[in-house]
Fold this protein.
Amino acid sequence: MKKVIATAVLGLAVAVSGAFAADGEAIFKSKGCASCHQANVDTVGPSLKKIAQAYKGKEADMIKFLKGEAPAIVDPAKFGIMKAQLNNIKGLSEEELKALAEFVLKH
Ligand code: HEC
């Protein structure tokens, strides 16, 4: 019986961690980021490619930026437009922010 329970608990843990693995692309789309950020061309906001180049190897810095704890480095003159967007992602967990940053950095 003990063994059965242990197996069940393990199975549940795997299922739960799978279900909560944050999907950066889904967050990016659901939070409206895609309306100003295209993959390869600058529109209202800089392209994801440009952002990824600026933040290459600096994922932690991007997470800080998304939390409003670090200054803009890509196009500081337009930060006013981006700043308002940070409110949309205030409620995200550390894991979700990491997934979001990873998605942007993939470009
Ligand atoms: C209303 C248009 C708009 C939306 C929506 C938007 N952004 Fe931006 N974003 C901008 C503009 C303009 C800039 C350039 C200013 C700047 O560099 O901060 C920018 C810059 C950025 C940068 C680079 C920051 C830096 O260091 O310069 C990141 C990362 C970013 N956006 C992520 C996001 C994410 C994630 C979302 C969705 C939650 C999002 N943006 C939604 C307009 C937008």
Q: What stands out?
A: The longest helix spans residues 2-20.
